[in-house]
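The methods section describes the discrete structure representation at length, but only in general terms. An entry of this sort, consisting of the sequence and the corresponding backbone structure tokens, reads as follows:
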Amino acid sequence: MQVKNPDRLVWLSQTTLSVDEAMETVRRLRIRFPNLQDPPSDDICYATQNRQVAIKKVAPEADVVIVVGSANSSNSVRLVEVALEYGAKAAYRVDFSTEIQQEWLEGARTVGISSGASVPEGLVREVLQELEDAGYADVAEVRTAEEDLIFSLPKELRPSRKR
């Protein structure tokens, strides 16, 4: 591949790539293009990154990992892959708690749960309840990061305030 000006290159990544994958790709690019510039901001979604870090911590101890999230959510699908890569014996993705199959849990002592970056918390609570009903009532939260960012709505979408 011929690059017009190799001193004016910036790398960008799809937000659902893992940080490890993105950094390995950047490392390889830097061999060919030593002046490769980083993007103006961290473009890997913090919520996606945080969930991948947590799954990497949970997976080695989990017999089963259940990821709550849609099939068309690449970050949810990726969480299943990361769970398997990092040692989970089995990992599944569900949209709703009713999709959990009891055979997934047969012989499982430890079940890990995560969710895609934009999954409503209520869906995760329903999965927790389903697992509690199946005998997995002892829940331990694994927290690897605090997500305290608040995003403001664009001005056009903010409710008007009368003074």
Residues 15 and 27 are 18 Å apart (CA to CA).
